[in-house]
What does this fold into?
Amino acid sequence: MRVLVIEDEPRLADNIARSLRESAGYAVDIAHDGQEGLFLAESSEYDVVLLDLMLPQMDGMQLLRRVRQGGQRTPVLVVTARDDKESVVALLNAGADDYLTKPFDLGELLARTKALIRRGKGQPSPVLSVGDLELNTVNRSVQRGGRPISLTAMEYRVLEYLAHRPRAVVSKTELLEHLYDYNWEKFSNVIEVYISGLRRKLDDGSARQLIHTLRGQGYILQDGQP
Amino acid sequence: MVRDLIKLGEIWKGSIKARLIAIVVLSQTLLAAGLLLTGIFYTHRRLLSTLDAGMQARAMSVAALVRYAEDASGNVYFDDTLMPSSLDPAHPDLFAVWTERSGLLTRSSSWPSGLDLPAAGRDHWNFKFAHVHYRGLRVFQVPVLDREEGKAFRPQSLTIVYAAPMHQLDEQVQQAGISIALSSLLLLGATVLLALWGIRRGLLPLQELAAQAGLVSTHNWELHLPDDAQQIKELRPLTQSMTTMLERLHHSFDQQREFMGNAAHELKTPVAVLKSTLQSLLQRPRASEEYRAGLEHSLEDLERLEQLLQWMLRLARAEQWAHGALRRDLQVIDITATCEEAVERIRHLAESRNATVHLSKNGPVLFRADPEDLQLVWINLLENAVRYGPEGGSVEVAVIRENAGPARIVFEDHGAGIALADLPHVFERFYRGDPSRTRSTGGFGLGLAIAKALVEAYGGTIAAESAAGKGTRMTVELPTGRESM
It folds into this structure.
């Protein structure tokens, strides 16, 4: 998963990014002002955007409206110091999906971010299942047919992304874009490595294959042949 | 008795109604007493003159009973067969007749022995006989009326004393007094009732006003003045001062609330930073260097938070002074000297930006103030000028005093200037024209607000002028000329 944090207070942005990387394994991009934020939000694929309202260059509300006018459907979580009803209503009406008031709890920020990602991909439950595969996004554990499977951090991230979009074809570029921050081009060859590692661990001792490769198109996570 | 009087005094002091009623009763009583006295006096005089006239007539009728003897001697006798009886048999009238020639001719049977007649010259007098007040009348030179033409003798003249009891007159006067007193009392009662009703009605607008004033609270500042209260001339000073007092209260309450809101809002971000730093530190076990770095960051953030609090306290204090809080620690100081000191203190910052600060002086300008306050104002203005001026730019400071006018202290930089939209707001607390710029320069958006509050605390004004791309000019005016006080 890839998250954009738009926050002008550098230390707060760093803390949020560190927490998202460490606790959820997400790739995080940081923008320190509204213009940079808008550019990144429009030019890259994000699974969720965390947006501060008081921003230099362009304030958060304006940015939100621009993003929504451009047809972007990425979930937006607004982090604001204002908690009066009027501004919350105005925020939600401008296209925000959720909001959090400062000072917030990092755990709550993580939980809300995860929930927004899930819902953005049509998955209401924090436990994703495909066939007899179960992926728990809260404690980041995976099991198949009741058997726990231990994955590396990157393998988990690939599987998590695929599990959020079961039965859909996910291209290598899409995977790269959502698993790495803006340097993703450098990692274009590593996806195959993670996919083969995942296949070995998931399908070990099981008759049914879960990850399928469509040559020239990408990967599908589903129970049985596509 | 004394206690009752004290209680009455308290009622008098404690109630407008009681005061008004007391005044009404007092004036009515005085009026009634005056009326009573005049009435009695007048009635007494009228009755007395009637009595006197009656007595005169009766004395004349007594004179008519004096006859000449049938001989030619010219002697007289009193014919008492025709004497009318007294009106009041219990207290009969008294009379006596003297002739010129032979003295006492006759007197009534009830004539008291030893009755002192007054000295000649007084015709009327009062005396007491048999426990009854009498009024006496003495008539001199009454000719004997029984005169026949052609008599040779010289006609005689008589002296007649006639006295009648006055108890009827006294009774009548008393009755008149009682009836006047009674009607006055009735009138007094009616007046008091009328006054009570009138006062209650008259005070009604005051009650309505009080009821409306009771509805005013911190959630509802609107005071609906009743029409009555607005129209009554006597209430107008009260309603006017209530309205202006409410406006002032509302204004300062709003200011306080706004300040609280602003402060809370400004504190949220640094607290969020601190909290997130500590929470992310605790999310997983870390190396001791990581903990150390996290703690150092937290400490830095805390210091910034502390600074913000200090600035906010400084502003709150300055605003309190600006709203007229009393200050005793003022001394006569030289404004130019405080400017020199401020320029000295800003030197380090100016050097770091290769900026030069030039101060043009015109001799000492005296002013009664706390030098620390003025320096704080100058430093805030200088910091802004140096920070927002160009790298290597110059800042001009001038202290000007023309004749008896106010002292003007002007700060001019040649930086980017303030955007026209921001210019009216630069003195508002926490206002930052461009958040990114102040964040990098470490401002809180309080410096100019503090400067304004301090200048206003000394009765001065501060104004900002700016031209985009040319620079900003800040002008402070202080009312000098009262230093000798």
Notes: The CA atoms of residues 230 and 445 of chain B lie 45 Å apart. The two ends of chain B are 56 Å apart (CA to CA). The longest strand of chain B covers residues 132-143. Chain B touches chain A at residues 265, 268-269, 271-277, 279-280, 283-284, 297, 301, 434-437, 439 (CB under 8 Å).
